[in-house]
């Protein structure tokens, strides 16, 4: 202890009053404030991105749920019908009758604007066909006024959404500048209105030329069957694997190998799982391409690590005293796990599974590799088995296909699809949170 | 060393360093310290003793406002250092803590080299003019911490690689390096073995020459060995405060006596 | 017999087995369950397991192996002359399979008579006409050889399936008999059932290993195939990426370097965005924020992590790209030609990674013991000095691990780069230029029309291998660092 006594005589330095903040402290405090500011700034930037993202999605996606329709009351007499049916160009005859009636209506309303067959066709497509289809099926409606809601072309839709502007319009066979005068006039007269676009929710991919008819319904069904496969496979396998690892596995090389594999698989890029699915399920096993069954298998392998990790956490949170109590009354190890530990861990397991499913629902890249691209989602599957084996797409892949198309009208559909996808994700997360709230247990 | 006789020193002639008046501390709804008033002397070792949870550590942490870092903690009353209220609005706790250093229960060297551990305080407070000056301060602090001879050849080895006793002396050296006027020690030996404890206790005695040392301990023997003044806390109350020799031989309060004789604890 | 029916029948036998086994055991104990070794249900389960497990196992293996065997034997019958120029046996075989499937469907739909479909002397023109009429996809390449092979294929397929159904049913019934015979009161049914369950649990846990093996094998085999067609040195060191769309080999240049460069460049931009924002958010949330702020801000940031990547891809393509273009494009600074660029993809990927970096760093910063902070505050350090000089150095290994994990995420990310980065492979330093990445090219090479035996498609597996090795390396390194870090404070 000679060290201390060597300097023992020295007095410690006395500093100034603590009631006066010295220059150095002031500088240090300024630095402190700056540093804290960076932290707040970082969080605000993060939240700002979230808001921008949300605003983009909502503002660009909502128009997908509405469509522009021309709402006209139309009456066709029996004579007109017979006459039209007897001509050579039947649909053209219907169109002529329609245009004549529309002209009358416009005059009554006092709107004066010139239009011809060409502009009507550019605005509404082949009206005659729609009318003829209706009247041939419902002959009893002849002679009575019927209100038709005729969907306007996607460019007219775009004019209302701001995607098509007068200034930026390039005249083409799809739309001419004079047509917009007509559109404005019709809108003023209340003939053109907005209606909810059910087709978007129930429809299928309509091909590259028809953005107006595109819908997400079929790919929602595709996603549903995929999630069914994932749920049916990933939940039992994941729970079984977790029970083994958490409750039965001895400390040995084999267990270590499994553990290492699980933690690495959790971080393997999703597209690699797509390659696996392509090579193993399609090339090797010859399972049908583009089938939700294959998609489900790939997503199962992808979500298994997530589910195993969360299931193990919930098994771990069941205190050992429960196991001891069961073993103490003479239950076998298997009985103690299945009768006591598993039911107690179930809410946590379900929460983890739902979150894993939500992750799988939003996954796109592997689906593209096994052929579940948007344009195969043309028809609803026939029956339950068909839902698994018939070629279909899934929501995110459908969105990707729309986004990758050249026609800008599809972008709005893609955003709309995202809203639908996010609504599903939100629902799943809400269920998970409610489950956790309801069954949360503190030991 | 372990059976050092109780010192009868010239405590009465020392200046008062810290004055606490009617201090109350609350943790949320818990009333942890109740109306404690005490005068703590300069160049003296004062021991706070008492059963666990009696508030002695809490009170110690009030003296350099370490309780500020705990959100739910609220301090009422007045504590002054050299006549200046340390809970005054104008006080920056950073400046206060440079004057009132602290050593903790568990040795907590930073995951840095031994040199950087000691140089940390002087660096942030700007005590060194240049590198040579800093080297000088570090060496002096390590010598005062009575650990220089053991580490002088490996100043750039990590501080976490030292033994427990060495780590605690390193932490004391680290606290001393900022040249505080008061040194608070929160059960500095509770995590150490008897030999390391002996070394640290000897060091505390040496430090008394320059600092006011306040030590919290749950070991009555330790209080008796190292301190000149002793304060006994019980259930948040300061029960008795006086010369160590008097507290241990002739306590006034019955609770103090019970504690010292081992009937409560 | 359709597969579904076979499975349902086996399940039916299992249910019957359960009831019978349970009843038999109870009867042997005189109707009093207390005389049984195990609970009655265990006897039933024992029978059911013996019915289901062996038969279903055989069925699964059969389903996987049969096509391989048939493929092998049918492809051996195809004469060498039947393989056209510019094609391969593999292509012809996929033709054969498609035709066989077409025949099957056509017969099932009634568009073709069974006799014609199986007639070895049938005229291939007639058959293909009938197939087309029945709505089955047939290419123009249908030759006599292919048709013969397809008929063989179909015959063997049907035959194999019939044998399989028989074998599976026999096994199920044998299992039933075996289980029933055992169902006696002295039989230790519980132990047997528990052993079986344990085996099932182990099998489930082993799927993780099987998946890894599956990934590695599917990558390795196809990569070897690729290197047979395309020199490995040109792949690893080539600086040009220009696959030809029509030709087969020769004209394609498939150098991986431009793709790797694009991948790294975009990842670096992403990390430059994500690391400071994520790290500072984590620091603020763990060191400064009040519990209330933390309970709001942390989940809000984590929403960013729950959003599917396709959403970010669309965000890059349609929002961020045009936005950047209006600032850096020809109307602004003139650095940018199109909305898709390294900057666009990197920025959006950075946003995606913010919560990833922040929650990992948050965990790691919280793992730094409180005594470190106390020690620093006790010396009179301010909070920021404590963070910068004590906490961050202490947490550094963990944070490095977190950043490596984020980097591996960025490298493996697909949808954002497919939509946001562009399609041109370039070796350029300009971050406003379109570039492409390994993942984007995997998608484009495997979703095009190229057939799977051409180097243009096989290169995707070599790219996948590169990606897998890269990300695996990063992950292993990161997990190792993080584990070491955690051990330090445990």
UniProtKB/TrEMBL annotation, chain A:
It is found in: Cell inner membrane; Cell membrane. Gene3D superfamilies: MetI-like (1.10.3720.10). The chain crosses the membrane at residues 37-58, 224-245, 265-285, 291-309, 341-362, 414-435. CDD domains: TM_PBP2. GO terms for molecular function: phosphate transmembrane transporter activity. Keywords: Cell membrane, Membrane, Transmembrane, Transmembrane helix, Transport. It is a multi-pass membrane protein. GO terms for biological process: phosphate ion transmembrane transport. GO terms for cellular component: plasma membrane. Residues 220-432 form the ABC transmembrane type-1 domain. Belongs to the binding-protein-dependent transport system permease family. CysTW subfamily. PANTHER family: PHOSPHATE TRANSPORT SYSTEM PERMEASE PROTEIN PSTA-RELATED. This is Phosphate transport system permease protein PstA.
Automatic annotation (TrEMBL), chain C:
It is found in: Cell inner membrane; Cell membrane. It is a multi-pass membrane protein. The chain crosses the membrane at residues 6-26, 47-65, 158-178, 199-221, 264-285, 305-328, 334-357, 390-411, 457-482. Keywords: Cell inner membrane, Cell membrane, Membrane, Phosphate transport, Transmembrane, Transmembrane helix, Transport. PROSITE patterns: ABC_TM1. One of its GO terms (cellular component) is plasma membrane. Residues 260-478 form the ABC transmembrane type-1 domain. GO terms for biological process: phosphate ion transport. One of its GO terms (molecular function) is phosphate transmembrane transporter activity. PANTHER family: PHOSPHATE TRANSPORT SYSTEM PERMEASE, PHOSPHATE TRANSPORT SYSTEM PERMEASE PROTEIN. Part of the binding-protein-dependent transport system for phosphate; probably responsible for the translocation of the substrate across the membrane. Belongs to the binding-protein-dependent transport system permease family. CysTW subfamily. This is Phosphate transport system permease protein. It comes from Salipiger mucosus DSM 16094.
């Amino acid at each position: 202890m000679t060290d201390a006594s060597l300097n023992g005589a020295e007095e410690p330095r006395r500093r100034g009053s603590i009631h006066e903040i010295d220059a150095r402290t002031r500088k240090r405090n300024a630095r402190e404030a700056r540093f804290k500011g960076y932290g707040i700034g970082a969080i605000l930037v993060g939240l700002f991105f979230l808001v921008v993202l949300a605003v983009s999605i909502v503002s660009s996606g909502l128009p997908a749920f509405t469509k522009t329709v021309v709402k006209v009351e139309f009456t066709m007499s029996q004579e007109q019908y017979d006459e039209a049916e007897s001509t050579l160009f039947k649909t053209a005859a219907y169109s002529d009758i329609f245009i004549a009636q529309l002209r009358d209506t416009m005059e009554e309303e006092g709107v004066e604007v010139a239009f011809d067959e060409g502009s009507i066709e550019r605005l509404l497509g082949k009206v005659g066909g729609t009318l003829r289809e209706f009247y041939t099926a419902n002959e009893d409606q002849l002679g009575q006024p019927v209100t038709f809601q005729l969907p306007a072309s996607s460019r007219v839709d775009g004019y209302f959404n701001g995607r098509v502007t007068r200034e930026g319009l390039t005249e083409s066979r799809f739309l001419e500048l004079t047509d917009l005068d007509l559109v404005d006039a019709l809108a003023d007269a209340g003939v053109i209105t907005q209606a909810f676009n059910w087709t978007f929710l129930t429809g299928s991919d309509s091909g590259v030329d028809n953005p107006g008819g595109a819908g997400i319904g079929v790919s929602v069904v595709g996603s549903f069957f995929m999630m069914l496969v994932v749920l049916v496979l990933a939940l039992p396998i994941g729970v079984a694997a977790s029970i083994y690892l958490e409750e039965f596995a001895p400390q040995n090389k084999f267990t270590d190998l499994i553990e290492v594999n699980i933690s690495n698989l959790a971080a393997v890029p999703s597209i690699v799982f797509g390659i696996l699915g392509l090579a193993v399920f399609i090339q090797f096993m010859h399972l049908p391409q583009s089938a939700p069954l294959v998609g489900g298998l790939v997503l199962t392998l992808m979500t298994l690590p997530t589910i195993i990790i969360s299931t193990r956490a919930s098994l771990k949170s069941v205190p050992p005293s429960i196991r001891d109590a069961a073993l103490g009354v003479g239950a076998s190890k298997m009985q103690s796990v299945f009768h006591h530990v598993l039911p107690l861990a179930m809410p946590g397991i379900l929460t983890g599974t739902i979150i894993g499913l939500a992750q799988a629902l939003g996954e796109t890249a592997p689906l593209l590799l096994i052929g579940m691209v948007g344009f195969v989602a043309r028809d609803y599957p026939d029956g339950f088995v068909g839902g698994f084996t018939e070629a279909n797409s899934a929501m995110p892949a459908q969105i990707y296909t729309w986004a990758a198309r050249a026609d800008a009208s599809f972008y709005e559909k893609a955003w709309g699809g995202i809203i639908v996808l996010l609504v599903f994700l939100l629902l799943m997360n809400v269920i998970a949170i409610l489950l956790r709230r309801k069954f949360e247990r503190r030991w | 060393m372990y059976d050092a006789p109780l010192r009868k020193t010239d405590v009465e002639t020392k200046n008062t360093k810290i004055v606490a008046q009617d201090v109350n501390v609350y943790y949320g709804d818990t009333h942890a310290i109740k109306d404690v008033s005490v005068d703590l002397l300069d160049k003296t070792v004062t021991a706070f003793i008492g059963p666990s949870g009696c508030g002695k550590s809490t009170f110690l942490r009030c003296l350099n406002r370490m309780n500020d870092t705990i959100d739910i903690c609220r301090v009422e009353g007045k504590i002054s250092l050299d006549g200046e209220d340390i809970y005054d609005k104008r006080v920056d706790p950073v400046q206060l803590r440079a004057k009132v250093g602290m050593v903790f229960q568990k040795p907590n060297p930073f995951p840095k080299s031994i040199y950087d551990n000691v140089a940390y305080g002087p660096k942030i407070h700007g005590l060194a003019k240049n590198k040579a000056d800093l080297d000088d301060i570090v060496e002096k602090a390590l010598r005062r911490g009575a650990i220089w001879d053991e580490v002088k050849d490996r100043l750039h080895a990590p501080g976490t690689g030292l033994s427990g006793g060495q780590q605690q002396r390193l932490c004391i050296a680290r606290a001393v390096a900022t040249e505080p006027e008061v040194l608070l020690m929160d059960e500095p030996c509770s995590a150490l073995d008897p030999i390391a404890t002996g070394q640290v206790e000897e060091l505390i005695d040496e430090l008394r020459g320059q600092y006011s040392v306040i030590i919290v301990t749950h070991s009555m023997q330790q209080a008796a060995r190292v301190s000149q003044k002793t304060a006994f806390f019980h259930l948040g109350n300061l029960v008795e405060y006086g010369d160590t020799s008097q507290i241990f031989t002739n306590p006034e309060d019955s609770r103090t006596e019970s504690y010292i004789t081992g009937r409560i604890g | 017999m359709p597969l579904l029916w076979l499975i349902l029948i086996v399940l039916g036998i299992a249910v019957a087995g359960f009831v019978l086994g349970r009843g038999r055991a109870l009867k042997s104990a005189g109707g009093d369950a207390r005389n049984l070794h195990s609970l009655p249900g265990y006897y039933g389960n024992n029978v059911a397991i013996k019915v289901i497990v062996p038969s279903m196992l055989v069925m699964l293996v059969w389903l996987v192996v049969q096509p391989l065997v048939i493929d092998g034997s049918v492809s051996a019958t195809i004469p060498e002359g039947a393989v056209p120029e510019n094609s391969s046996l593999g292509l012809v075989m996929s033709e054969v399979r498609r035709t066989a499937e077409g025949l099957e469907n056509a017969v099932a739909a009634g568009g073709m008579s069974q006799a014609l479909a199986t007639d070895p002397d049938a005229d291939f023109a007639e058959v293909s006409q009938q197939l087309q009429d029945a709505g089955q996809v047939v290419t123009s390449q249908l030759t006599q050889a292919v048709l013969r092979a397809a008929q063989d294929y179909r015959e063997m397929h049907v035959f194999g399936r019939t044998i399989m159904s028989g074998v599976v049913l026999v096994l199920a019934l044998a299992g039933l008999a075996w289980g029933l015979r055992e169902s006696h009161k002295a039989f230790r049914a519980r132990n047997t059932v528990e052993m079986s369950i344990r085996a099932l649990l182990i099998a489930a846990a082993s799927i993780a290993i099987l998946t890894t093996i599956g990934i590695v094998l599917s990558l390795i085999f196809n990569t070897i195939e690729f290197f047979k067609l395309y020199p490995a040195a040109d792949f690893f060191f080539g600086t040009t990426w220009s696959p030809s769309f029509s030709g087969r080999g020769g004209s394609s240049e498939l150098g991986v370097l431009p793709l790797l460069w694009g991948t790294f460049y975009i990842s670096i931009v992403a990390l430059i965005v994500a690391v400071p924002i994520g790290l500072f958010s984590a620091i603020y949330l763990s060191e400064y924020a009040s519990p209330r702020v933390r309970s709001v801000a942390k989940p809000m940031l984590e929403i960013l992590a729950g959003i599917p990547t396709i959403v970010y891809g669309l965000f890059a393509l349609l929002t961020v790209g045009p936005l950047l273009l209006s600032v850096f494009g020809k109307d602004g600074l003139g650095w940018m030609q199109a909305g898709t660029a390294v900057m666009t993809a990197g920025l959006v990927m950075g946003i995606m990674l913010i919560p990833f970096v922040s929650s990992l760093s948050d965990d790691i910063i919280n793992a730094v013991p409180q005594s470190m902070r106390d020690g620093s505050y006790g010396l009179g350090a301010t909070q920021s000095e404590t963070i910068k000089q004590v906490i961050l150095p202490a947490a550094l290994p963990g944070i490095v691990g977190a950043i490596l994990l984020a980097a591996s995420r960025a490298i493996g990310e697909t949808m954002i780069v497919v939509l946001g980065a562009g399609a041109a492979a370039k070796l350029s330093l300009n971050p406003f230029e379109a570039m492409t990445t390994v993942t984007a090219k995997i998608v484009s090479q495997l979703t095009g029309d190229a057939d799977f035996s051409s180097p243009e498609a096989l290169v995707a597996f070599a790219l996948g291998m590169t990606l897998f090795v890269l990300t695996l390396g990063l992950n292993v390194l990161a997990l190792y660092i993080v584990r070491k870090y955690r051990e330090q404070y445990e």
